[in-house]
Predict the structure of Subtilisin-like protease.
Amino acid sequence: MAAHGDILRKKVLLWCLGLFVLVHLSAAQSTEKKLYIVYMGSNNLPDAEITTSNHHNLLASVLGSAGTAKTAIVHSYKHGLNGFSALLTETEAAQISAMRGVVSAFPSVSYSLQTTRTWDYMGINLDGNGPWTSTDFGKDTIVATIDTGVWPEHESFDDTAMGPIPQKWNGECEAGLSTPKFQCNKKLIGARYFSAGYEAMWGKMNVSDPTVTVSPRDIEGHGTHTTTTLGGSRTRNVSFQGTLGTGTARGGAANSRLVSYKVCWPGSCQTADIVAAFDMAIHDGVDVIAISLGASSVDYFYDSIAIGSFHAMERGILVVAAGGNSGPDKATVINGAPWILTAAASSIDREYLSDIHLGNNVTYSGPSLNTERIAPKSYPIVDAGDIPAFNTTSDDARLCGEDSLDAEKVKGSIVVCAPGDMFGIYYPEVEVHAKGGVATIIIDEDLKSFAQVFHQPAVTVVSQGVGNHILAYINKTRNPMAMMTPSLMHLGAPAPLAATFSSRGPNSVTPDIFKPDLTAPGVSILAGWSPAASPSEDPSDTRAFGYNILSGTSMSTPHVAGAAALVKAAHPGWSPAAIKSALMTTAKPPDSQHKQNSDGGLAWGSGHIDPKEALDPGLVYNTTFAEYNTFLCSMNYTDDQIRVITGNMTSNMRCPTAKLPANNLNYPSIAAVNFTKPITVVRTVTNVGAPESVYKVEVHHPSGIHVSVRPKTLKFSNEKKVLSYAVTLSPTRTQPWRENWVFGALIWNDDSHRVRTPIAVGPKMSSPFL
């Protein structure tokens, strides 16, 4: 591994070469074939083969022959949506993009991957009575993950107590090329894999490579982790390496049926394959989809997850997607389309810590998943910057990259490393162990603040101040010594806290649709793992684990999807928008103790998920398809484009002359940016509680904003189940929202339910996509 200075020099050299090569490549770009996704909106044809034939004919009109078109096509999207992916030149893609009936044509890109106590922590326990028992833990709902596949033999997929597979299931279990043979059962009822897009980009996979299996089998671990969190069967006495997180593991919807769609392969999750997975999930008859993937925000109809989710929503399927791991920076949230339920990550009341006892009787604790034991005694402690290997600078040595340390000075010591933004690219503890060190203290300058699995004894300190104190002790002491303990589990930590890594709002595509939607446990989550995957992501770590502990919005996403499956089981006729509303309006906002910092709702959205309350929300915001049409008009799509997207090909579909802003969408939250004068938005709620209900409004005004609601009382009856109200936001003399986001809420209260709609008002910003 190159030292940090070498990496920077190489980046500069490559940049210079890039300028030179760019000039020479410009002429070649028109003939170079790339994988493009051609999106053609909704598919209303009853015969999928006719749709595929139409794709061939359209492509043949550009490429010159039907044979060439058939060879070029990689995927034909023909079930829930209409389109295809194909190898095209930039010129050919532009020609197709201009054709009538084509919404967009854009390159396929690679998306990145973004429990024993968590469900008890949220109040969904196995014993006792509660509203969740009426759902029988999501019995017979069909929930799917689009991820890295699954390990089908895992005990969390035990089907002993499962009845017959629901008749609505229309999918398959694709075995592929897997050893042992991939098999499904009555719990894991289906699995498919999508690799054509990946292979079109990177060539045919080498099936003799042990790190590759062309089947739905998971060899990376991520998909098994998310799927078991979502709906794994009850499994008793599980733990992380027999020492941490001991308890009963199960998914939130423990009696649901599981489906896995594998779209990720070594180093890449191609968007062309992701769209194919959505298309097939719609065909197969799933109820809820969890997708813990994503990239930077783009226009919704150049975004494979937004496209797939739109057509899933159209067919009654709720999609829950990860909000991203780019926090704490603002405006980093991804998967922000309003028809997606976007999940942020928070902590639970459990953490894993190792103690560092310095020779001056000062003790520090840091997050760690370190079960490798060292003798309980004091060792010399050294600063890696003081022990560089030959021809290595002090700064590079402090990174603890490969071959950066002097073995003679490392041997028998605890070594302090500060890898900075290189942490996660290579593994400091591996270099320390290779040179004879006994343990590693990692100063985590990125403040990830969550426990990580280490191959060798190590701990992170997530405060630069603590790191400086440790280094000062080393530098000011003649013979500095330290002792480090293995990781221990601690209960009772302040929670929930927004995870530092969790991406923050606002939504950069449509700022007036506030995102993320809510938060759920995503820090140090114990769930099933593929024994073929490295537990620490270090390629040299060949340990085989049945369970692993991970952090990320990838982990919060299946928690939200599991809760959605419970609501779906209790209310099978509810739309995706109604289920989403129930989860958002019953979420618990952070109290003053847990707000942590000024970003407030930028991290939390509506609040922390409360699955019990969501089963009986009282009122729901039920977004209609006509309202999505109006929303798409606000995105500056043409009438023709919206007809194609929605499948509404009638000539009377017209955008209003004066386009309504996005915040008029009937959404369970209210947001406003570029706020200079009073605005009024309208919301419509449907009563799903007692027929004769009276709700009164209470308002929490954002700082510098006066909120008025008309009417102040909603009276429902058997005849009046749907009512509307208007909300006017007016600036006061103090205007803090010109510089920072401010937050409030309106709550409809009938003494049995508190239906909370958050209000967010922020400074001037514009979307580059509008």
About this structure: The first helix runs from residue 4 to 25. The chain has four domains: 1-28, 112-348+496-614, 351-491, 619-623+666-761. The domain at 112-348+496-614 is CATH 3.40.50.200 (Rossmann fold). The chain is about 25% helix and 25% strand.
